[in-house]
Known about the structure:
The structure is a single chain. By secondary structure, the chain is of the alpha+beta class. The chain contains two helices and five strands. The protein has one domain. The protein has helices spanning 9-60, 68-74; strands at residues 78-80, 83-88, 91-99, 106-115, 125-134. The chain has a five-stranded antiparallel beta sheet, with helices on one face.
Amino acid sequence: xxxxxxxxxxxxxxxxxxxxxxxxxxxxxxxxxxxxxxxxxxxxxxxxxxxxxxxxxxxxxxxxxxxxxxxxxxxxxxxxxxxxxxxxxxxxxxxxxxxxxxxxxxxxxxxxxxxxxxxxxxxxxxxxxxxxxxxxx
Length: 137
């Protein structure tokens, strides 16, 4: 009986070929997983920012005599009619509001956050939050 101490060249080539075929088939799965992680992080960050912004607006709405426009302006928004915008870091905020016709102190407020990064896939609306607030009480 012969003593075998290693692999033949044919065995090594066949093993490398099989490994290559498997990697070509699996590589797109790694790319898609990475893209999903990036997108998930974007949405999570945007949701955090919109929640934080809404909490600041909520806290400021409790001041006596406050209106939606005055609160948003005090937080750095530029208002035109019932639409206010603000840029902060990589994020763009759009706040729109409408006052209830029957109860003038209740306002429907919608905040939308988008990312302003240089990536062409960014810039789309990433999160929004809607809330009814009572201003000035």
